[in-house]
Design brief:
This protein is of the alpha+beta class. It folds into two domains: 50 residues; 136 residues, Jelly Rolls (Sandwich), CATH 2.60.120. The chain contains two helices and 15 strands. Strands 7-6-9-4-13 form a five-stranded antiparallel beta sheet, with no helix packed on it. It has a four-stranded antiparallel beta sheet with strand order 1-15-5-8, with no helix packed on it. Strands 3, 10, 11 and 14 form a four-stranded antiparallel beta sheet that branches. The radius of gyration is 23 Å and the shape is elongated. The chain starts with a helix and ends with a helix.
């Protein structure tokens, strides 16, 4: 193999390694795992679950636990700034959750919190709001506490998807970018090999 071919091959391998490492560093994780219980409460007021972070993370998605029913209203707030959620912007329900993928993933700093509020399906004068219980807080999510109102205790009306906060690092390339880079690198390598053969 010629010196140019070796250099191109090395560059392609380095690019592939960089992209794979970057993708791993930006992998998403669910804050709540091992969910073993589900229930609902009929209540006059919304339920709010608050997630407090022990160190900075990137918030990518918010999962609302709807359990097959259409809630009256959904919202979330980051450090007190509230945002209502349109039901049409949520994913199809999976395991009782409908997910809102944030168009701009948000950095949540140490000691900041994300609060998720749900008001369930109308049920007479009250609202039937669903929640999960019996979960574990994923240690790698850097969430120090999960608190819930009405009913209080180890329960949640939601879940979050987060990824590691790496200041100065770029977001991992899309899979299409990775494929394009490999295709382009392979094409350049082939051209160099043909040129070396023709020159010989």
């Amino acid at each position: 193999m010629s010196d140019i071919s070796r250099k191109l091959s090395s560059a392609a391998a380095s690019l592939a390694t960089l992209i794979l490492v970057s993708s791993a560093a930006n992998a998403q994780t669910d804050v709540l795992t091992g969910i073993s219980g589900t229930s609902f409460i009929t209540f006059l007021d919304p339920i709010t679950t608050t997630y407090t972070f022990s160190s900075s993370m990137i918030l990518n998605s918010i999962g609302f636990y709807t359990n097959g029913e259409t809630p009256q209203s959904l919202s979330y707030s980051i450090n007190g700034a509230s945002q209502s959620v349109d039901l049409n912007s949520l994913s199809t329900e999976v395991n009782g959750f409908r997910w809102l993928t944030l168009s701009n993933p948000t950095t949540i700093l140490q000691n900041q919190s994300v609060a998720v509020t749900t008001l369930g399906k109308k049920n007479g004068p009250r609202y039937k709001t669903h929640y999960v219980s019996g979960f574990t807080v994923n240690a790698s999510s850097n969430v120090s506490s999960v608190t819930n109102t009405n009913p209080s205790g180890i329960r949640s009306n939601s879940n979050l998807r987060v990824s590691a906060y790496n200041p100065g690092s770029n977001v991992a390339p899309e899979p299409g970018t990775f494929a394009l880079a490999l295709t382009g690198g392979g094409a350049l390598l082939g051209i160099c090999i043909r040129r070396r053969r023709n020159a010989a």
